[in-house]
UniProtKB/TrEMBL annotation, chains A, B:
Cross-referenced PROSITE patterns: NUCLEASE_NON_SPEC
Necessary cofactors: Mg(2+)
Domain (DNA/RNA non-specific endonuclease/pyrophosphatase/phosphodiesterase) ranges: 97-308
Family to which this protein belongs: Belongs to the DNA/RNA non-specific endonuclease family.
One GO BP: apoptotic DNA fragmentation
Cellular compartments annotated: Mitochondrion
Active site: 163 (proton acceptor)
Name of protein: Endonuclease
Length: 318, 318
């Protein structure tokens, strides 16, 4: 097989996938236009995905192109998605592209597998026109109703709807900020002492990296880590909330690649327990080898990073 | 978008995906041929998937073609895969095609998400040439080492390596039977009282369906079901075994579609707890609405079944 074929084949492949989803969309529109659904039709409808720009159709866009923010994209353009996902997809299950971030949704746990963002000094800069108070948490209709988390699942659960792509990372436009409020981008987090404190400190730290690095790529997601019990055996145990059994992760991870103007890369990986963390705990304590996040999450991060560009992992030279 | 385009677009898309995997395979072969791996190369290699016929390349094969076993396939031919998957893929995450069944692998839990089989009277008939005692449990090198379950994980765990695609369902050729012994097709099961008893009875029941139905499609997999604890909250809890933290599912499901010569379909769905079940428990007790398996598994089964063909669910007319 001649390898020169790949780019064009992949382009065509991408078109095929998009076409499929577009076809499904049209089919669904037909149903709604008829507006006369009997029970059987409803049942059939329940088995069709509502669709939105889902699986990105840009596999042939070269990752080698420089990542610079040219203009504010309000829809998930192939160009912007290829920027965000420059260093590879951790997995390809139920991928959704929003205006300024990309995620993979875990239908069994009703939270994301991973959420990928690309930050620059410009995209995180304070912007008076963007007001997160105007954003509403909303369920994502593109997820099949069986697997869709709802605000009601979180209501009175004792947990915050914790952003994976932080609202504060998406300040170029109100829509960017608003998109981070889709429940597909949320997981139940301990509020006081975690989401509003230690986790928030980590988010601020990531934003701050844009002061010293041209491009910051960050992938965030939940973990369900085992612990040993008195019987000497290891167990994974986590709460589920609401009618849809939304999983409360035991931990969260962030894995970051920061790119200097010279194209050098520094990687950092963090795992934080979903619990109250005292304010004087330094973030560095939560640094872990990137590999341990990969093993626990079942994902491979930054697969396309050129190892020659990688100069530091968790602050240490490699 | 003209819908007549879809079949050819999908064909091209499939080719693209297969090409990609084939390319990756060739790339890997190169590494091995060089046979001079330094540490950096090894680390890079670790981030490449070892590959085998993985993502099926047959999306354009019509599901309308009659499913008849023409000859014994020893490799996962597009034709055979399209037979097995006639009624749709439950999901597309890490799909692997073996000689006589297809599965999707859960890299986080190191067990399958789902395993799909197509059975006929011929394929399950006693065959003196096939001896399951000659089959060895073996790990699947096509799974990245971070996520690959090993025999050592099961050793002395107290759990059986429980087949999802049952060995007894694949008797046309020794290779069919041998392929069911890949650890990707296993999940830890309680041995005495479950794997060797109630679960085995369910497997025999499914095989027996081939006496009355031309084609039997069965999808099998693990579940992790929540339970309420004394604090009134719901939790998902399961043991993990071995160095690779292989998940011990709390339950297993089977969802079956049996097709008569007239093309009429009957569906049955079962959920069984992974625990000792007394021999006098009738299998019917474990029947559940197919929807409840879908919600718990995060999967959609038999999505492409024409609802007009479906005449019974769990023995009741629909």
């Amino acid at each position: 097989m001649n390898k020169k074929w790949f780019p064009s084949l992949l382009t065509i492949g991408s078109i095929a996938v998009s076409s499929y989803y577009y076809g499904a969309y049209e089919e669904r529109q037909k149903f709604f236009k008829n507006n006369r659904l009997d029970e059987k039709q409803q049942s059939e409808l329940l088995h069709k995905h509502s669709t939105k720009p889902a699986f990105p159709s840009f596999a042939a866009v070269s990752a080698a192109e420089p990542a610079v923010v040219t203009e504010v994209n309000l829809t998930a353009t192939p160009w912007r998605i290829s920027q965000i996902m420059k260093y590879g997809f951790p997995s390809l299950d139920n991928v959704r592209s929003y205006s300024d971030f990309v995620l993979s949704y875990d239908r069994r746990n009703r939270v994301p597998y991973w959420v990928f963002e690309h930050l620059t000094a410009a995209s995180v800069a304070k912007n008076e026109e963007v007001d997160r108070a105007k954003c509403d948490f909303k369920s994502d209709e593109s997820i099949h109703p069986y697997f869709r988390s709802q605000n009601s699942d979180y209501f009175r659960s004792g947990f915050d709807r914790g952003h994976m792509a932080a609202a504060g990372n998406h300040r170029l436009h109100q829509k960017h900020c608003a998109d981070t409020f889709f429940l597909t981008n949320m997981a139940p987090q301990v509020g006081q002492g975690f989401n509003r404190d230690a986790w928030n400190r980590l988010e601020m730290y990531v934003r701050k990296l844009t002061k010293n690095f041209t491009n910051v790529y960050v992938c965030t997601g939940p973990l369900y880590l085992p612990h040993q019990e008195e019987d000497g055996k290891n167990y994974i145990k986590y709460q589920v909330i609401g009618a849809n059994n939304v999983a409360v992760p035991t931990h969260f991870y962030k894995i970051i690649v920061a790119e200097s103007t010279e194209g050098q890369l520094e990687m950092e990986a963090y795992i934080m327990p979903n619990q109250v963390i005292s304010d004087d705990t330094p973030l560095q304590i939560f640094q872990v080898p990137p590999e341990s996040v990969e093993r626990a999450a079942g994902l491979l991060f930054f697969d396309k990073v050129n190892k020659n560009q990688l100069v530091k992992i968790n602050g240490k030279k490699v």
